[in-house]
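User: Predict structure, ligand dinuclear copper ion.
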Amino acid sequence: MTSKLPKYLAIFSLVWVFIVSCSPQHQQSTFANAGPVAQQQSNLYYLMFWIAALIFVLVQGALIFALLNFRRREKPIPGSDFTVPDIPPKQVHGNTRLEIIWTIIPALILVVIAVPTVQTIYDTYQPPENSDPLEVVAMGHQWWWEFRYPDEGIVTANELFIPTDRPVRITLQSQDVIHSFWVPQAAGKKDTVPGNTNVMWLQIDEPGNYSGQCAEFCGVAHARMRFRVIAEEETDFNTWMEAMKTPPKMDTSEGYGLFLAHCSMCHSIDSYNENSYEKELTMQDERWDDWYFNQEESVRVSAPNLTHLGIRSMLAAGQRDMTKENLITWIKDPSEFKQGTRMQSVASVYKGGPAKLEDYEIEAIADYLLAQIPDGWGLAKADGAIEEEAEAMVWNTAEEHGEYLFVNQGCAGCHSLNEEEVIVGPSMYGLYARSGDKVPGLSAEEYIYQSIVYPNEYIVEGYPANVMPQIFINLSEEELQALVSYLKTIE
Ligand code: CUA
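Assistant: Predicted complex:
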């Protein structure tokens, strides 16, 4: 008898696992409905469950009744030790009335299930008419989520902000393979299919964080393709939206330069700028094509938009909390948290291994990224210190100021000052002398100035477009003039 104990224990633990996974307390439980779509789907589920449970009880009851009542019985012959075998019951074949009954009943059950099922499919496909849904595009990437707000011109990643009590229409797309968008508490899963567009909607009633994940096996980091839905009261949501369009404090720290030199080819950080939405869409496609058509040599691949990263709560598509320590570990060696990232296999700063950067440089990048918060966001953090530092910078000449900017804005990460050396972009050597006759009607100064502000309009032959960040338009006029003055001196 004792030998059966482990078996019972095993069965019990298995049953326990299944029961626990149904607990509505779990943050990814489909039983903890957070809004009308989930509620309707849940109702359908319960309807089917109870119908199935009733059928189960009736069928099993009839079976047990028949087994017990009509089992073979041997009758004793009175006054002897012998028994007589039971006489077989009357053999019946065919009973029209019974057969009609047991055809009609299941058909009726199917109708009872089909009507609300079809109704639910239609209801959960598009938001109710006359509701004013928020439009969101959820784009699956290996292995992270891009969220676009086309009406607001906002692009972000892995954290989807939505208002409560308002339908959100989600257009589902994928750039690479099939993924599946799933927020268990808010709505059923739906696939994102490359070359095809799916639509769903959801709505969340209570403010809070709702966890989501990719629910379709999509490659090595599929299990690490999580995201978070952050539902906020309408006013808080609007604050977030406005904040996303507000630039951060101009940051000329060393981290900024390092970020521009090593990260900015793939990660945009400037979605607060006007027209940055269209630009980001184009660039994301170009980065993808770059990688897709030349996987051996490409140093670019589609990547999460990092605008205002400092206000996000998680990093690496939901793998860790956003803390400085985690961010440093992540930049240093992404495979610590997540194996198989394209960042690590594609970016020149990694090329498959840990970042080829000094620890202090990684820390500088982390500091810079964490400082990417909309100006005026939340508590006014130690503003005084930063302003004092900025005031302390006094330039004797525009050239000196320009030289500082050239290094601290990251220009030096891509443009050498030597005649021979090419880092990423063209060398700045002798720039002034050759700039005068580049574009008819533009003086050398104007040409240099325009090339900084609108890099894509003035692509030097032999260099690809869209590599230089289009963010220097945010520099002040004085800073731009300083840069031009400095660049004139490189001969
Ligand atoms: Cu994306 Cu699984």
